[in-house]
Amino acid sequence: MKTQPYNNFWQQIHDTARKKGTLLRVMLELTYNCNFKCKHCYVPQSYRKKKGELKTEEVFSILDQLKQIGCFYLGFTGGEPFVRKDIMDILRYAKRCGFEIIIYTNGSLIDEKMADELALLRPNKVDITIPAMSKDAFEKISGVSGSRDKVFNSIEFLHKRKVNLGFKSCVLKENETEIKEIQDFAASLGAPHRLDDLLSPRLDGSEEPYKYRGEMIKSREQDRPSVLDCRLSERDESPELITDNLFKCGVGVSQAAITPFGELKMCLMIDYPKYNILEGCLRNCWQRLKELTSDIKPDEKYQCNKCELEPYCKWCPAKAWLYNKTFTFCEPEGRGKAEQVRQLSNNI
Amino acid sequence: MRETMVLRKNKNMVTRVIDDETILLPIYKTSDEINSIYTLNRVASRVWKLINGKRTLGEIKKQILKDFDTIPEEVSKEMAKFLKDLKEIKAVV
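Structure tokens for the assembled complex are given below, as produced in the milestone run.
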């Protein structure tokens, strides 16, 4: 028996999955419901009222099928996954199936009992969104009074139990001066922190979230190098630019997402097409999604391979899709943000 | 390695075959285990499959000798090492 460092193993199976077209990594949206009311969220309010989200047994059935076709990494997300009463049953089942899991959450609903079990189940990461450090900014963003204390209490429960944590934040008007403090907090717990300075339009195409977007340039001058580093370092997670495949992230090659209604789709942000797993079977849905994705090629609208802003840009086909329902268009919001980041980078 | 010994798998150890490689995943990991993964070679993978709470280690050894082109001394050595590893990570009881 060989004990391998996790990252080596990950790299090895990731490379093979890409070659063979194995669905290795799935983001599973367990619900669109959420106990927070963040105005910048990409999930439209109308989605939260939709009926027919997956029942526990249906989630289990999908997990069984994912296991059968070789999936290994599951990201549980929402909405807020912990609003589901059966969340711990689902996590336990996923671990019993032999998945490695990451949970994306606002953290506010994790109590000490759940933290105890999470400490046993040891997800690869509990990834918590920290909107701000100050109570005032935090609760303006979440729209829920008392939410800051709940989230920081949960973080303490989990950290005490040595659960692997990660944090992320969106740069918003309310928190643009607090980003460095969030980074410092994450560092004090030895946890990574990711930064989204672009935001996404909503799944229904509404660009309202852009209204709430903040500017990294508004961070204190002495904090800017660190804030910028965090923004640029995220690119290191992506593989090198592959010119004949638009989906650098692996969508349609080794990665996909599943909606709270049991539909397989490309990623969280691309809501079309959706293949109903409960009506068909996952293997067939994945085959159809792979074929569709492989037909999407760079066309005359695709500019990244000759764009000088590319090193600063977070463009992906999902951004184009949400902008004008194409997969190759250079959408202006992302381009504008890339220009700002280049300027900020040159000034430091 | 006592050949009359019978081992049972720990129910909290999950087996997956990913990319033709057999891996063992503890459902409840220790904090030391979080950044590592246990992978089995072909012989170890077959031994693991044969452990069922009924077969003796002697029977498993005989089966391995049938399945692989190897000699008894090699199998004994490899099995002893593998079983020690399994006990260390509490994969068998």
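Residues 8 and 53 of chain B are 4 Å apart (CA to CA). Chain B has a mean pLDDT of 91. Further analysis is deferred to the final report.
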